[in-house]
Design goal:
By secondary structure, this protein is mostly beta strands. 14% of the residues lie in helices and 36% in strands.
Length: 671
């Protein structure tokens, strides 16, 4: 059998920067169809010694952790008040040979970018402290893997397992050691060989050991494009295969776009059958395992800054699908952190991570639609260059933290109707008898539901629609509204920019209540409308009396329920409730970011930093949870519904009950 040739073991000779950028070291892939004796790393060197970015920041050349974290949305991940950084998890990185300076090099890398030093443990393939010989090419691989896994998940521990050689038996021994260690939840493998006869017989190395917490295995798909791809071990149905893109950002790291990378390993397996999770998503074949599953920046046109003194003397720029494997591993570690906080176990790669990634909505990925790896082109949906695409990390982590990727029916958990929009999954309604039901896959910017289950929704570009069980969806107007609400018998109130406040009833259609524009509107079962007019305060409309100014003070949040009861938050003054008999009553001096009221006058609020509270006349305020909610609503019976970022939708009666682990961008409750 033929081994990989020279590849990254070739010596890098100093040259002017312009020449160094053309001195690209590439891998020669293995073509043998039998078990490989030697496997090669997939890191590629672009240039060394680069200090001082184009923006003159004084930082090393190449993408920085802050840029990458921002571009892919890692800096938007939080679990309540806890930062999503992989804390409590251990990322195992398996490479061959040694990088003897990795501990010190990682500290220098961290210092340059203001990162905390992690708990780094380095062992040989059997867990011992006697490390193998150093190697230039594998040393670069180790530096890239360790530094960038830590950059994306700075709170995670790192276990580096250095195999004694690049022989596949040594690497698999290292994998086995890594997967059996306590706390390891993800194993990163940035190395590749061609497919070979009997490769599926080695899948047991890429499955969670018996009695161990769930482990996900991640591998680079290779850097030679479609030629001879796919590669092992990324072709295993139990391994998450990471392909490559070229990422475009601005200096701040704002995402500008991606194209498929020419070196991204991708294709259809000749020896591995298509796993069930790819059915219906992969269209290029109905029988073969398709690679890659996902993608990440890998191009020499958008390289990563790496620090390596073992062979290169300091700062350099590196690229390849090697970069994506440890950073996707970091993403999985962050998701496992969130699952642990929610009381769930870490993900098993073959039975959870991969199936869930294929079930997530397309909006959770950057769909890369241009670029080629030689034999295949990137396109809409799944393709053999970039898989499902690169991560919108905050959305993917939220999906992996949830126990399901769509709301699961759970009738009986609530006695009221709830409505929610799940980004990328459309509008769903919860009914006491049927649980969650998808009303439309189209996403709405606003939703509301009444006590009978009628739903009103605003769809950008399509106007205001109402859903009733007997008739389905019906367009009430093509005009787009900035604020909507629905109450008993399907009465809808809406604010149309430039046209004022209108109310819709089946018998009379739309009726303009005022040409003045309101910042917010709400409607109750009797058709009374509350509105906040900037500079003019809070007003209430009743058919018998018309508009009545309740206060000249401007409110940041308003709600109205039966009998015209209004609740409002006034910035700097707290939460007040208005009833005709008593006028305004101060309920709390604390300001709320969300306010809701029911027909009996019970009020639910979200106070940033203090969680969700409910006010009842006889007992006053009661804290229902210290966890902050993105949205709150209250039902006619006083049950409070909260949408909690990364924890889904919950309802409180005498205790909290989870209605769904899926996160919603809009939520409402029938009152």
């Amino acid at each position: 059998m033929r081994a990989f040739l020279h590849a990254l073991a070739a010596r890098f000779r100093a040259a002017p920067r312009a020449q160094r950028r053309r001195s690209v070291l590439r891998l020669e892939r293995l073509e043998d169809r039998t078990v490989p004796t030697v496997v090669s790393p997939t890191a590629l060197l672009l240039a060394s010694g680069g200090v001082g970015s184009a923006a003159g920041s004084g930082l090393p050349a190449g993408l920085s952790p802050a840029q990458v974290r921002h571009a892919y949305g890692f800096d938007q991940i939080a679990f309540g008040s806890v930062q999503g950084d992989g804390s409590g998890q251990t990322i195992a990185i398996v490479d061959a040979y040694a990088q003897p300076n990795i501990a010190g090099d990682l500290q220098t890398f961290d210092a340059a970018y203001g990162l905390p030093n992690p708990q780094l443990t380095v062992v040989n393939e059997n867990g011992g402290s006697s490390l193998p010989a150093a190697d230039q090419g594998w040393g670069l691989e180790i530096s890239l893997d360790v530094e960038w896994a830590h950059a994306i998940a700075p709170g995670a521990n790192i276990l580096l397992v250095e195999a004694g050689s690049a022989n596949s038996p040594d690497l698999l021994t290292a994998v086995h050691y890594a997967e059996t260690q306590p706390g390891v939840s993800v194993v990163s493998m940035s190395w590749a060989a061609g497919e070979f006869t009997g490769e599926a017989s080695l899948d047991n190395y890429f499955t969670t050991p018996s009695g161990h917490n769930g482990v996900t295995f991640v591998a680079a798909s290779g850097d030679a494009g479609s030629a001879g791809a796919p590669n092992w071990p990324s072709v295993s149905a139990d391994v998450l295969a990471v392909g490559g893109t070229q990422l475009s950002t601005d200096a701040a790291g704002d995402y500008l776009g991606e194209t498929g990378w020419s070196g991204s390993g991708g294709g259809l397996s000749t020896g591995v059958s298509q796993p069930a999770y790819q059915k219906g998503i992969v269209t290029q074949s109905s029988t073969a395992r398709a690679v890659p599953d996902v993608a990440y920046d890998a191009s020499g046109g958008s390289p990563f800054a790496v620090y390596d003194t073992s062979s290169y003397g300091g700062w350099l720029e590196a690229y390849g699908t090697s970069a994506g494997a440890p950073q996707w591993s970091a993403l999985i570690a962050i998701a496992d952190q969130g699952r642990a906080l929610a009381g769930d176990g870490t993900l098993d790669g073959g039975t959870q991570t991969l199936p869930m990634l294929y079930q997530l909505p397309a909006a959770d990925f950057h769909d890369v639609t241009s670029g080629s790896n030689g034999g295949y082109s990137a396109g809409a949906g799944y393709d053999l260059v970039t898989g499902r695409g690169s991560p919108v990390a905050n959305l993917i982590v939220a999906g992996l933290v949830g126990t399901s990727t769509s709301p699961s029916p759970s009738p009986g958990a609530s006695s009221s109707y709830e409505v929610a929009d799940f980004s990328g999954r459309g509008v769903w309604r919860y009914s006491p008898t049927a649980g969650w039901q998808q009303l439309t896959p189209v996403d709405a910017t606003q939703t509301a539901v009444d006590a009978h289950g009628d739903v009103a929704a605003e769809f950008p570009g399509y106007g205001v629609w109402r859903y009733e069980d007997s008739t389905g969806w019906r367009q009430l107007t093509a005009a787009n509204a900035t604020s909507i609400d629905v109450a008993g018998q399907g009465v809808v109130a809406a604010e149309f920019p430039g046209y004022g406040v209108w109310r819709y009833e089946d018998g009379s259609g739309w009726r303009q209540l005022t040409p003045a524009n309101a910042a917010q509107v709400a409607v109750d079962d009797s058709g009374d409308v509350a509105a906040e007019f900037v500079g003019y305060g809070v007003w209430r409309y009743e058919d018998s009396a018309g508009w009545r100014q309740l206060t000249t003070a401007n409110a940041s949040q308003i709600a109205i329920a039966g009998s015209g009861v209004v609740a409002a938050d006034f910035a700097g003054y707290g939460v007040y409730r208005y009833e005709d008999a008593t006028g305004w009553q101060l309920l709390s001096t604390a300001n709320a970011s969300q306010v809701a009221v029911d027909a009996s006058g019970d009020v639910a609020i979200e106070v940033p930093g203090y969680g969700v509270w409910r006010y009842e006349g006889p007992t006053g305020w009661r804290q229902l949870t210290g966890t902050d909610a993105a949205q709150v609503a209250i039902a006619a019976d006083g049950d409070v519904v909260g949408a909690f970022s990364s924890y889904g939708i919950w309802i409180f009666d005498s205790a909290w009950t989870q209605l769904t682990a899926s996160n919603a961008s809009e939520v409402g409750v029938g009152v």
